[in-house]
Design a protein that fits this description.
By secondary structure, the chain is of the alpha+beta class. The chain is 15% helix and 38% strand. Strands 1, 2, 3, 5, 6, 8 and 9 form a seven-stranded antiparallel sheet that branches. About 12% of the residues have low confidence.
Length: 198
């Protein structure tokens, strides 16, 4: 007669191995991207010597759930003046966790980079160049030259933030690199602001 006391041990081992194999096959989700609820574009005019003059004008996009996961962000229209040159700075915030994302991006400057696309670029309405104080290509601060005679007064500025990209990838030195995905990484932010010129 077989020893029935050993059966529960065998059964326990078989079940344990079954659970272990199920767990090892389940992929773990990774989400290293930043949650961004508020994006503020700040513009200040630059004179011919490159010195800021006048007041800062701000335009904001926000979604309480997070811009990349929410359903309908509120986006203000960027209003600029033809023929002017501006310094644009970007501020990012996570109101869910009360976190200053701008600070995190600066601390991880080698892993983050903004790209600027949309009809303001393809229509030669805005010329955007990196102008980060550290000299690194981040895009938290840029120089923006507005055309004196743009083809249209209604345009779009697409602002993209990538992380974990290859910043030395050919083309990635250009803030208007349309094929930014080729440089690898993930998108933390992709939002389009309407632009009107006076």
């Amino acid at each position: 007669m077989k020893d029935l006391r050993k059966l529960p041990v065998y059964l326990f081992v078989a079940l344990a191995m079954g659970f272990a194999s199920c767990e090892s096959n389940d992929p773990e989700e990774e989400n290293d991207g930043e949650v961004i609820t508020d994006v503020t574009l700040k513009f200040q005019e630059l004179n011919a010597s490159g010195v800021t003059v006048g007041s800062v004008i701000s335009f904001k996009a926000s979604d309480p759930q997070g811009i990349e996961v929410g359903s309908s962000p509120t986006i203000q229209t960027v209003t600029l003046t033809k023929g002017k040159t501006y310094r644009m700075s970007i501020e990012l915030f996570n109101s869910i966790e009360n976190e200053d994302i701008t600070k995190e991006i600066l601390e991880e400057a080698d892993e983050h980079q903004f790209f600027f696309l949309g009809t303001v670029v393809t229509g030669n309405i805005l010329a955007i160049t990196y102008d980060d104080p550290s000299g690194e290509r981040i895009g938290l601060r840029t120089k923006v030259v507005v055309s004196s005679s743009p083809g249209t007064n209604n345009a779009q500025l697409r602002v993209i933030l990538r992380h974990d990209l290859d910043k030395s990838f050919p083309g990635a030195t250009n803030p208007n690199f349309a094929n930014f995905v080729q440089a690898g990484g993930e998108t933390d932010l992709d939002i389009t602001f309407p632009v009107v010129l006076n």
